[in-house]
Amino acid sequence: MDSLNALFSLGFATALTPANLLWALLGCTLGTAIGVLPGVGPAVTVALLLPVTQSVDPTGALIMLAGVYYGAMFGGSTTSILLNTPGEAGSIVSALEGNKMAKMGRAGPALSTAAIGSFVAGSIATVLLTLLAPVIAGFALQLGPVETFALMMLTFAAVSAVLGNSPLKGFIALLLGLSMGLIGIEGQSGQSRFTFGLLPLIDGIDIVVVAMGLFAVGETLYTATYENKIAGRIESLKGSFWMSKDDWKRSWKPWLRGTAIGFPFGTLPAGGTEMPTFLSYSAERKLADEKTRKQFGKGAIEGVAGPEAANNAAVTGTLVPLLTLGIPTSATAAIMLSAFQQYNIVPGPLLFDTNPELVWGLIASLYIGNVMLLVLNLPLVGLWVQFLKVPRPLLYGGIIVLATMGAYALRQSWFDLMLLYIIGVLGFLMRRFDFPVVPLVVGLIVGPMAEKHFRRAMSINEGDLTVFLTHPISLVILLVTAAILVVPPLMKRRQALLDSAR
């Protein structure tokens, strides 16, 4: 009941102010437009907006960035269904059945079940966020520096071992991020380290520059180089746009199942949106009756409804560890964490006590944003289709120009511009050689926090490293971390032995 009281007395009172409603609408509109554009995801957009939000009220800025985040999930389905080219990773599965439906003249029902399913999943997931976040924050308040450091080790292991095709590449990316996080003045002694005599590095590497370099510059260079040659035909919006009675009957259960699958994955380190959407698609295929199962691969509406619901539920789920523990579980969440930091706000269990208007206003804006997105996506789908006709060179050139202007606006420094392009080339090479980018961002942002908690734990326990094994919660977390690192290689080796024995 306390959560509901706080939601209505603080949250909606904050989110329903004219200024914050405008920020929510702007974020949802930008997010939908970005989701529609192939090759441009929410991480790129949030990174580009970071310099702009420095002059905006923290609550309004974070409401807008959250609107961009879940708005992109709505918009991504449009590109998947009409062009068979996912606007972002979470919409890959929707293209399997959605584009087939569009070719059959059923693009309207496919877009409708995607939009309504996203609304249903987003609303249910926001209710779960409302109820669970204060509980998890209360539990997190009981964690000391020992347990917090162990939790961060779990995050490092998860994002490195799970993301990408190679755990080794994930750990290399993580170490690179941790190394970048060490640059600058060391908090305890006040001494500068790894600055190589360069004065601009005394304050460390600006997270905003890194985010724009990796995502805005690096991703754009990669997309323009390797994915710009993909040609696609936009399917026309012919036939009835609305879902039939049979479509509703076949969609509502996948919406609920997709929500149940997606939300837990969003709360996990390295959960992402790809895995729950594939699991949802697989579940719908297995649960379908014989007649419906034959339609999979030919345009089954269940294959759009379930994954789209899982996609949006997972996105809302990422806000649980971000707000309660200060731990990002996706690239966009990591960039949003840097947005908190640029306002000197530390997400975590104390956030609900120190900034209740901000956190509850942000949660309330999710309810409002879901309604806005439903209105934006259903009646205005014809408008979003026009975005698919934007020439790719103009789009990519615009992103590079905006990133350059944003980096220079931070401190009017040529060094930041040089750093932007160096990190942009690094991001391009990482994508080219299949190194995951998320571990680098998490290492850069969470690394200094982990160092602080480690030093505090060592100071309290007189340098005794065994303290991480004598605290029960820390021990359990470290055992889970070890399992993440050890079990997958053992299972692969076991499977290889079984294959060779056959």
Automatic annotation (TrEMBL):
Q: Does the keyword Transmembrane helix apply?
A: yes
Q: Name one Pfam family in it.
A: TctA
Signal peptide range in chain numbering: none
**DUF112 domain segment(s):** 21-441
Record's keyword terms, sorted: Membrane, Transmembrane, Transmembrane helix
Entry superkingdom: Bacteria
Q: Where is the chain membrane-spanning?
A: 20-50, 62-83, 114-141, 194-217, 319-337, 358-387, 393-410, 465-487
**Any keyword Membrane?**
yes
State the protein's name.
Putative tricarboxylic transport membrane protein
Q: What is the source species?
A: Vogesella indigofera (Pseudomonas indigofera)
